[in-house]
Amino acid sequence: MSQGRIIKALAGFYYVEDDHQIIQCRARGKFRKDEIKPLVGDFVEYEVEGDNDGYVMNVLPRHNCLVRPPICNVDQALIVSSCKEPDFSSILLDKFLLVIEHLGIEPIIIISKMDLDEDESVKQYVKDYRQAGYRVYEISSKDNHGLEELKTVFKDKVSVITGQSGVGKSSFLNALDINLKLETNEISKSLGRGKHTTRHVELLKMYGGYLGDTPGFSSLELEMTPEELAVAYHDFAQFSHECKFRGCLHDSEPNCGVKKAVEDGKISKERYEHYLMNLQDVKKKEERKYG
Ligand code: GDP
Ligand code: ZN
């Protein structure tokens, strides 16, 4: 059996890419009974029938799956945050980072509209996030700043782009000068306009990699335990081995390596304060859940 990757799903067909060939496949009947349904991004085993037709036989294990749009095995998410209009919010960015990393997707931070950063108010944030180990790109779609460099991040990866509305995601994609049709809602004609929409999911070729549709996270709620949250701040890890208590949440515990790192300026104070806010948040949720 051959192996390939589903790059498009439309009207009951799966388009499987294998070594630059596209094979139009249907799913074998067994998928109707099974819980697991092939999705875009899946690595699959397929059987060829005829020239370019075939059947998806088996879905290989997934690394992750987005729900809306349904795309699996996403490698990285470009999180776009503008420095102005809307104002930069590190609280919001941290939530995106936590939710995305929790899905096992690598985040890449893009600070957009840098032409508006006259007072250089985001410079310190850029430093802090880099110090915390994140890849940060500063761009302006208005004067094409930083775009060339960004083209290289897509190679050999499946990427998605996310961020608050109005931060310049579409402008950025347009400035990259590609013909993207990101919103494709095809109305099924046989059922009449508006009655039924079939979602067409597709990975688009993008500078040597693939770009998925913009994911909408139904919420940026942190669905994790306090312990998971502490681990999710992976830049804290290099200091937490100095914490006196195992499972230290770096809050009111004495002899905490993370709090010391904040005092020594090795972790930004603001990043730590936002961590505490998120910690309160997930603690409250735990209490509500378990009483
Ligand atoms: P989206 O909702 O994230 O897709 O954001 P859009 O791409 O629609 O952009 C929202 C607004 O920001 C539009 O009015 C754009 O013209 C503006 N905008 C986007 N990129 C830039 C930029 O680099 N500099 C400036 N000054 N404005 C921008
Ligand atoms: Zn600690």
TrEMBL record:
Q: Which residues bind Zn(2+) per the record?
A: 243, 248, 250, 256
| Biological-process GO terms, alphabetical | ribosomal small subunit biogenesis
Q: Which domain of life is it from?
A: Bacteria
Cite the GO molecular-function annotations of the record. GTP binding; GTPase activity; metal ion binding; rRNA binding
Write out the residues that bind GTP. 112-115, 163-171
One GO cellular component term, please give it.
cytoplasm
Localization recorded for this chain is: Cytoplasm
Q: Does the keyword Metal-binding apply?
A: yes
SUPFAM superfamilies in the cross-refs: Nucleic acid-binding proteins (SSF50249), P-loop containing nucleoside triphosphate hydrolases (SSF52540)
Quaternary structure per UniProt? Monomer. Associates with 30S ribosomal subunit, binds 16S rRNA.
Protein name from the UniProt record:
Small ribosomal subunit biogenesis GTPase RsgA
Species, as recorded: Thomasclavelia ramosa DSM 1402
